[in-house]
Amino acid sequence: MSIENSYSPSVATLPLGQQRGPVYWLRRSVQGLGTLSSVSVGLLALLWFALTLGAYPLLIPDEGRYVGVALSMLESGDYLVPRLDGLPFFHKPPLHYWLSALSLKVLGVNFVGARLVPALMAALLLAGMHAFLKRHASQQHAGWTALILISSPLLFGASHYANLDMTVAALISSCVLLGGHAALQMEQGRPYRLALMGLYATAGLAFLAKGLIGILIPGGILVFWLLGRAQWRILLRMFSVTGLGVLLLVATPWMWAMQARYPGFFDYYIVYQHFQRFLETGFNNPQPFWFYFALMPVATLSWTPFLFRRVRGVASAPDGLGAVRGLMLSALLTVLVFFSIPTSKLVGYVLPAIGPWAFFLADVVLRQSQREGEPAVGRRAIWSLAIGVLLCLAAVVTMVLRPQVNSRELGRVLAAEYQPGDRVVFLNNYRYDLGFYVPGLQSISVMGRWDDPDIMRTDSWRKELLEAARFEPQRGALTLIDRETLRKQLCQDSKAVFWLIGGPDAVRQSQVLNHAQRLYEDQRIALWRFDQDDHELMCGGTPKAAQPQRSVLRDQ
Q: What is the pLDDT of residues 486-507, one digit of tens each?
């Protein structure tokens, strides 16, 4: 027996004079979204997300970091080891990097290619919700949920942000929906094995996107849901030895390959990254426990007022959707509670909850339509949709008119003169996105005090580079240098060209920059060229006779 919605709002309740008004067209749009195939709905959502992907430069650090790792795969041809500045970078698994590298290869090294993967994943999340609700709830639920998600500022922003969060959210959501579909098919005596194998395969992909939470979160959601409905027999049938084999086949080969190549990989990737970091407090963006619970109303800001009207007494008649609502509630609460435990809370972590949250908003809209009439609710919905869309567009316009810190102009100047074999040295700073703007950029070093024990106590680019260097110490020694090493390098080869990148005030703190030519400067970063002429001035024309006691650079 299929689960169907027991009510359907009237489709012909408007007076004749209003048949072609905004409420009419909104109703037609929702009906159209409900009847369209889920693939078509996903493609429409992708078109909406993709229209403005290339409007502004990469944001740093996250977009520069993750796109930079994917770009290094593309340029080097090594798709096995994620690398940050040439060093193994095992903070995250490789799936998102693989997908981004493919996107950059197909579309070219541009902003659309860099951001296409999160846009695709946002469309996948939306299409998955549409397909599940169309099958197990109603076309009205599917259409309204899709409309709310399309106009969600959180989902729109995540679709434009080239990091792992949208990929993880889409795969976790897919796991939950495939598992929910398989369980409901079991209850109804219908075929379920394909969906069940899809659950295990997608869990393996989610593991390759984020690690253990790609398995633990959807697994917890489904367990809580089935036990809450006393469906323990269905829960036992959900366990599949074949499915487990599929999961392991997808998830584990890359880990074993990395452990074979880097003996300390498991300890770092599993023990530290998955367990110790979850409970540590020395990370960015500490927030109180209730942060995500307060964030959800903001995620769909223009639609949230519908919830308050429901609190004031919208009827709740039985309609046969208890199982679907239970699954959505389990998904919403599991995600919110799980990610509320760590002290560090980033906005993108809550994305797996956006689909269930939109479902409950759609459910409220439909119930209010049943109680108050479609015209009254439709007028409020038009305002909600318009405000949501305008908020999304306003965010893009703001990013265009007031761009965030990025290295586009710095990269443009460097790319105009950079030649293979030139050395690039960051002076006590690091720009993840520079390689995106300078094709073929190699031989990068970062000068700093790498023996400082405070580096490992807080999340920072210094900690990321230092941890990466431990997997390849020889390469790390060439990449992470101190000021004395830089001084020797500058004076050892009179024909080498060095590009030095540091803060605009670094010239007051570094004798070498007094001899270099400054080619670019903004409020945060400056670029100097140090070549043969500068070498003769600073090193006195004797490259190997540098005075070891003289300090050329001082730490900023």
A: 888 888 877 789 999 998 887 6
Six-digit token string for 356? 């269930």
**Angular region, 285: left φ>0, alpha ψ -120 to 50, beta rest:** left
User: What is the Cα–Cα distance from 272 to 471, expressed in whole angstroms?
Assistant: 15
Q: Which DSSP symbol is given to 530?
A: E
**pTM (predicted TM-score):** 0.90
Paired sense of beta strands 423-427 and 498-502, if any: parallel
pLDDT tens for 447-474 read 999 999 999 888 889 999 999 999 999 9
- The count of other CB atoms within 10 Å of the CB of residue 288 is 11
Cα–Cα–Cα angle for 265, 268, 270, rounded to 5 degrees: 90
The answer to whether 131 and 318 are in contact (CB under 8 A) is no
Are 7 and 364 spatial neighbours (Cβ–Cβ below 8 Å)? no
DSSP string, 183-237: HHHHHHT---HHHHHHHHHHHHHHHHHHSTHHHHHHHHHHHHHHHHTT-HHHHHH
Joined tokens for residue 256:
């074993």
Are 331 and 221 in contact by the 8 Å Cβ rule? The answer is yes
For 459-510, give the DSSP string. Answer: -SHHHHHHHHHTTSHHHHHHHEE-HHHHHHHHHH-TT--EEEEE-GGGGGTB
Joined tokens for residue 502:
């540091």
DSSP for 91-132 reads SS-SHHHHHHHHHHHHH-SSHHHHHHHHHHHHHHHHHHHHHH
